[in-house]
Write a structure and sequence with these properties.
The complex is a heterodimer. By secondary structure, chain A is mainly α. Chain A contains 7 helices and no strands. By secondary structure, chain B is an alpha+beta fold. The chains are: A mainly alpha, B alpha+beta.
Chain lengths: 162, 379
Amino acid sequence: MDEEFVQFVSARGRALCRTAYLLTGDWQVGEDLVQEALTRTYLRRRRLRSAEALEPYARRVLVSLFLSSRRRLWHQEVPVAAVPDQASNGSLDAAEDRHGLWSALMGLSPQQRAVLVLRYFEDLTEADIAAVLSCSPGTVKTHAARGLDRLRNSISLEGWTR
Amino acid sequence: MNDLEDLVRAELRARVAAAESAQEGEPPAVLLGELDRRIRRVWIRRRWTVSALSAIAFAAAVALPLALLSPGPAASNPLVTRSPRAAVPLTDTAATPPGWAPVAYRGAQISVPGSWYVETRGGSACGGGAHGMVFLGEGPRQRVFRAMGCRLSANVVIIRAAPSARTTERHHLQASVNGNTVALLQESHGTRGYLAPHLGVMLTARGPLSRQVLATLTRSPLSVVFARGPASPAPPGWRWRDFGGIRFAAPSGWHVERDKWWGGCSFGIAARTVRLSTATRLSAPSCVPFVPTAQSLAARQGVVIGAGPWAVRHALQGEATSCRSRHGMRLCILAPGGGSAVLTLLAYPGGTGRRALVQIGLAGTGATARTIFDSIRPR
């Protein structure tokens, strides 16, 4: 790897892992997605205009991999064999799920979850999110509104303002 | 902005903070190391693809004029009818970091630091002072281990046969490790692991290097040899040899040794060597105690043919797991002891009366071993 890319991964790799964790709900699976996204970014780095373009590109690939992996799992998830123990559902089994919000977030559609993570964790604008998801800002608004609606209906607290 | 949005924002940040603290402060170097391996793998795959495409293009360029000139039908030309070799998945050698050694069991291969001990039913180093241990075939029966005065190391890896498909169907998360789909096992007391049913194993690991070891999982060369797919023809640079009533091909650059001895202290197969032994005499010297480290047990590419009585006696001590007929010759596969560094076969080239023992080193991508296996036929 060249020096510039090593610096980029050292500086921003962890941040991408955080986003990936929020998308997948599992740190290891998220890290695997990040590595795949960074690998693809590295192989395309010469076509990117500047070093500043690395992170947006990596994030875009990451989200795209997440969405396509969800689509693949939907079709491919078949019983493969016996597992002696119950599989892990992440490293925060014992953590308190305040108001059921985390389970509600994990229950959203992949697109809705991606929009909410990018908007409320990454603090991206609707235009930036649209660029990441390769869709229009209107579609982003729709996903965000529907996602929030589903959260509002799912969680145990009441009295949310629109 | 409203209360729900604030709550979502706070929840996401709290979740990330909790997840990060559970990751034991993994340094960026780990991410970089694994990323570097992944990038190298992609480069190797690309080179293989380019080479395979070039080979196919070259073969087509050669075969097409031959087919057009041939009086027979074009489909009879083996260059045209044979499927590309790339169809068989290979062992990912890039998954083994520098300084580490591969350890194979059944259809799976992992890599560990070369100094780690490999514990099998047939041999134990009793923990010693190693930083890690790999148990093949069964777990560390701790009572027995303690009764023997042995101690487990800081890193313990266990590869055993996958449980039967009927045990339970509860699996939630699947992941892809070096192209192999695995089910994640529940993490408990620092032990994490995978179930890889298509490789026939369940893999668990605990200790500081557990994640790095799990990330090296790939298919074993043994599974490459027996993978479904087109037979691998011997490349033009290989040399055919006749010995012990059988005919086989091996790379022409390999060293050839001929002797009459069987047994001795040296372990396994000499690298890049074709050893042809009449095995009429038994060598039974007193040997220095052998320390079974991953490095010392690592498979080497090579082939041994033992044609005499001592080799056959050695073969008959093993249990034949299955027999098949290839090129009109009966071949029985003998159960490997411990790991899968060597494929041992008993060949019957002239009916049941004549027998020869064949050992093929299971190293590298498995492609060489597969080609040697496919080449074996009666003389």
